[in-house]
Amino acid sequence: MKTLNQKNKQIEKPSLEYYLKLQYPVTLYPDSQGGYVAQIKDLPGCLTQGETLKETMANINEARELWIETAYEASDDIPLPSSDNSYSGKFLVRIPKSLHRRLAETAEREGVSLNQYIVSLLSAVA
After folding, report:
1. Name one Pfam family in it (predicted).
2. What is the distance in angstroms between the CA of the first residue and the CA of the last residue of the chain?
3. pTM assigned to the model
């Protein structure tokens, strides 16, 4: 599909596959009534919920795909993922072995990685 820019030059619109491969930041937080909520702030209205972190992540991935496909078919603008280059997204925290074990065990029960589980906990208090 082609679009016109302001100088009347034809430019190629990126493919649907291009947009589907983009990595959007996801915000996770616990729902006050149980389960979790996930949102992609770069895609207005793209949010979902689930009973477990694993289910919530699967749901937000499906919601992202549907949001992008719908916008693409309607020829709406699809925002690119936001980025904040001033932060790497990584930091080191030393914790007691007993806390590490409890967090790892809970993440395993939830069916998610330890990293995903800790991010969801931090998102809830930030």
Report:
1. HicB
2. 42
3. 0.64
* Separation between Cα atoms, residue 68 and residue 19, nearest integer Å: 7
Pairwise pLDDT comparison (64 vs 31), residue with the higher score: 64
Tell me how far CA of residue 65 lies from CA of 8, 16, 22, in angstroms.
31, 10, 10
Only one residue has tokens 């800790």, namely 118
The pairing of beta strand 27-30 with beta strand 36-39: antiparallel
Structure tokens at 69: 């496909």
Q: 56-78: per-residue pLDDT in tens? A: 999 999 999 999 999 999 999 99
CATH number of the structural domain 2-125: 3.30.160.250
Place of tokens 């916008």: 71
Biggest CA–CA distance in the chain, Å, is: 64
Q: Is the pLDDT of residue 7 over 80?
A: no
